[in-house]
């Protein structure tokens, strides 16, 4: 059973448990007949069984990861057990007697006991689904106080106590509840933001570096006269009304076209890109997704630069060090900007060139209601000679995972996220599931028939390679399973965990009610907090971080780390056995636990966020911060910087 299913079952058991205690309380309060007393006894039984089920399921969840069960084991279960014990001790015997027809009126203790169990169950559900992981001491204290107060209130009501006592208990409970909510509001809105203020994890508290070593992100830039042949580009961002191949027209934001022009450079080039903003009122930047460049050119508004306003420009510079497939996109109001079309592809060719004779780039992107594969929302046909070697660079620039399907040939996956794979074997029939923001390069030899490339995003946008007129179009296998890159290619006996300081860090992803800029909503959280209040992951150059990412929610989170590739160690406790997998974006599906290794070798303040950019807007965004690095830029402010 998957962890997600276990989480759902455990929650279900908690809901059934709480529901049955509520039912038992109502029946007990209504001076039961024989029949309803029997029913109440049965509900007590259900409550107890549900409690046992929760205990068992929590035990299994612990074996998957502590973060799935922490608040259950330390809080919800003991509280539910206590409530159930009170209910059974005070209520079971009188209920059994009533069920046998002894018509004594039930004492107030009976419904009070049942209510105590119901309240315990409900607050346990609140701990799971509202507070989440980690359950903090203040939150636990508030919930416990509420449990005691509301149980006392129930007792007073059932015993028909005086109005004043009841009113006092109601007021006191409300006060505690409001204090809890107010405290949450303060933590979710209080300055300073974690992006510009360092946060020291207690686990890696070390003597601070001398402040003389402090460096600003603005100093972490490539000098304009760095060595290397210069590859210069100009990109102008502006609003545009586009007519797509299908005839559909879309109001887009574009770097001249959608996608923006493909930038092709060669390893070792000094790339200079000047960004101009024609008329994007919200501002624009360029982030080089997947390029591990110096921090000052990373293009994040409010962290590494100010948003470029209409009429302004900014020059990005970096030396193209690692060959591969990348993309670029705005990182100012990025969710809106990328969806509207501010993206393009970047290819770094190795100095020695690539082996393939045909080299095509295929980003899949949803623009308005249409899906583009490359430049077109229609089918496109390209003539390729049989026997020629072909490389296809598949990119997912959408918000959700996309599956590419290749029909008509077997192929090898030669690179993932711009890092070559070791000893890739031929794949005959498999879907390539690419996380939002991710890239896969595949290679094959052109057969003398046709090759068809489709995605699950659209039935109309496709690419057909044909070796000649009349070559039959191959059939896509819609049932082909996903290729699992964790077990693809050959393991080269990688040095697993290097020597030197090892920092353990855990990111628990969830969806919880929080205050986003002061407004209550269902947010996307990391360790229970939302951007910009998620404590940064603080490192020092030379550190190695073993990062565990746990998804407690019901949605996939493609986690993207700027400025670094991480080495995948395991997923759900199963070690990666294929080619060493170095990714900048990895899909953490519901219930999954990923363990990755990050070498802190690129000083800066780096964003670390979900690349379903709508989730980033709603909180799932944080910083990886090197000690001693500062930023003069701010969120909001006169430039209205909004990296999300
Ligand atoms: Cu491609 Cu911060 O993102
Ligand atoms: Cu997400």
Summary keywords:
about 650 residues, alpha+beta, Immunoglobulin-like, 4 domains, seven-stranded mixed β-sheet, six-stranded mixed β-sheet, 8 helices, 33 strands, about 30% strand, elongated, binds CU-O-CU linkage, binds copper (II) ion, Cu_oxidase_Cu_BS, Multicopper oxidase family protein, membrane, oxidoreductase, Cu-oxidase_2nd
Tell me briefly what this model is.
With 644 residues, the chain is an alpha+beta fold. The strands form 7 sheets. Strands 21, 22, 24, 26, 27, 28 and 30 form a 7-stranded mixed beta sheet that branches. A 6-stranded mixed beta sheet has the order 11-10-13-18-15-16, with no helix packed on it. A 5-stranded mixed beta sheet has the order 12-20-19-14-17, with no helix packed on it. Bound molecules: CU-O-CU linkage and copper (II) ion.
Outline the structure in words.
The structure is a single chain. With 644 residues, the protein is of the alpha+beta class. The protein has eight helices and 33 strands. It has four domains: 3-189; 202-217 and 493-630, Sandwich (Immunoglobulin-like); 221-353, Sandwich (Immunoglobulin-like); 355-483, Immunoglobulin-like (Sandwich), CATH 2.60.40. 27% of the residues lie in helices and 31% in strands. The strands form seven sheets. Strands 21, 22, 24, 26, 27, 28 and 30 form a seven-stranded mixed beta sheet that branches. Strand 19 (450-455) and strand 20 form a beta hairpin. Helix 1 packs antiparallel against helix 2 and helix 4 runs antiparallel to helix 5 (137-158). It is elongated, with a radius of gyration of 29 Å. Residues 287, 289, 329, 331, 437, 560, 562, 607, 609, 611 line the site of CU-O-CU linkage (C2O). Residues 193-203 have a biased composition (Polar residues). InterPro entries: Cu-oxidase-like_N, Cu-oxidase_2nd, Cu-oxidase_C, Cu-oxidase_fam, Cu_oxidase_Cu_BS, Cupredoxin.
């Amino acid at each position: 059973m998957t962890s997600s299913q276990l989480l759902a079952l455990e929650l279900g058991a908690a809901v059934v448990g709480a529901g049955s205690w509520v039912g038992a309380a109502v029946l007990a309060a209504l001076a039961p007949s024989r029949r309803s007393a029997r029913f109440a006894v049965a509900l007590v039984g259900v409550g107890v069984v549900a409690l046992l089920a929760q205990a068992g399921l929590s035990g299994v969840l612990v074996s998957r990861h502590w973060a799935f069960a922490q608040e259950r084991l330390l809080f919800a279960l003991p509280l539910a057990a206590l409530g159930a014990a009170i209910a059974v001790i005070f209520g079971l015997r009188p209920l059994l007697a009533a069920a046998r027809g002894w018509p004594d009126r039930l004492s107030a203790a009976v419904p009070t006991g049942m209510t105590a169990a119901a309240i315990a169950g409900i607050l346990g559900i609140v701990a799971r689904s509202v507070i989440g992981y980690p359950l903090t001491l203040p939150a636990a204290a508030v919930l416990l106080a509420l449990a005691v107060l509301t149980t006392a209130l129930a007792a007073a009501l059932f015993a028909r106590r005086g109005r004043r006592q009841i009113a006092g208990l109601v007021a006191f409970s409300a006060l505690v509840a409001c204090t809890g909510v107010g405290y949450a509001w303060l933590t979710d809105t209080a300055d300073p933001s974690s992006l510009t203020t360092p946060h020291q994890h207690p686990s890696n508290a070390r003597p601070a570096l001398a402040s003389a070593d402090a460096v600003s992100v603005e100093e972490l830039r490539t000098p304009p006269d760095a060595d290397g042949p210069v590859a210069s580009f100009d990109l102008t961002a502006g609003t545009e009304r586009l007519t797509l191949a299908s005839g559909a027209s879309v109001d887009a934001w574009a770097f001249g076209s959608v996608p923006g022009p493909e930038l092709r450079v060669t390893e070792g080039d000094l790339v200079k890109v000047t960004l101009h903003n024609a008329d994007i009122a919200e501002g624009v930047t360029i982030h080089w997704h997947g390029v591990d460049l110096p921090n000052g050119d990373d293009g994040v508004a409010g962290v590494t630069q100010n948003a470029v306003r209409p009429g302004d420009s900014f020059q990005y510079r970096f030396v193209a060090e690692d060959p591969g497939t990348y993309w670029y996109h705005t990182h100012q109001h990025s969710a809106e900007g990328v969806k509207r079309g501010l993206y393009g592809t970047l290819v770094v060719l190795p100095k020695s060139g690539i082996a393939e004779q045909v080299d095509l780039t295929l980003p899949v992107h949803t623009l308005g209601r249409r899906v583009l594969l490359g430049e077109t929302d229609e089918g496109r046909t390209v003539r390729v000679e049989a026997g020629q070697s072909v490389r296809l660079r598949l990119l997912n620039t959408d918000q959700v995972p996309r599956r590419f399907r290749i029909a008509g040939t077997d192929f090898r996956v030669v690179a993932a996220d711009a890092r070559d794979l070791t000893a890739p074997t031929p794949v005959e029939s498999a879907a390539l599931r690419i996380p939002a923001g991710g890239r896969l390069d595949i290679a094959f030899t052109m057969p003398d028939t046709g090759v068809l490339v489709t995605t699950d995003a659209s039935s109309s946008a496709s690419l057909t390679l044909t070796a000649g007129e009349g070559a039959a179009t191959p059939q896509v296998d819609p049932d082909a399973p996903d290729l699992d890159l964790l077990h693809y290619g050959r393991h080269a006996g990688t040095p697993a965990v290097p020597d030197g300081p090892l920092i353990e860090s855990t990111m628990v992803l969830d969806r919880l009610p929080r205050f986003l800029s002061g407004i209550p909503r269902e947010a996307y959280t990391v360790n229970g907090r939302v951007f910009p209040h998620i404590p940064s992951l603080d490192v020092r150059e030379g550190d190695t971080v073993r990062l565990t990412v746990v998804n407690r929610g019901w949605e996939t989170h493609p986690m993207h780390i700027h400025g670094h590739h991480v080495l995948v160690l395991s997923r759900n406790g199963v070690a990666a056995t294929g080619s060493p997998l170095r990714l900048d974006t990895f899909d953490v599906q519901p219930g999954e636990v990923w363990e990755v290794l990050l070498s802190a070798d690129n000083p800066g303040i780096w964003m670390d966020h979900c690349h379903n950019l709508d989730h980033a807007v709603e909180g799932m965004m944080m910083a990886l911060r090197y000690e001693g690095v500062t930023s003069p830029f701010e969120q909001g402010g006169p430039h209205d910087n909004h990296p999300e």
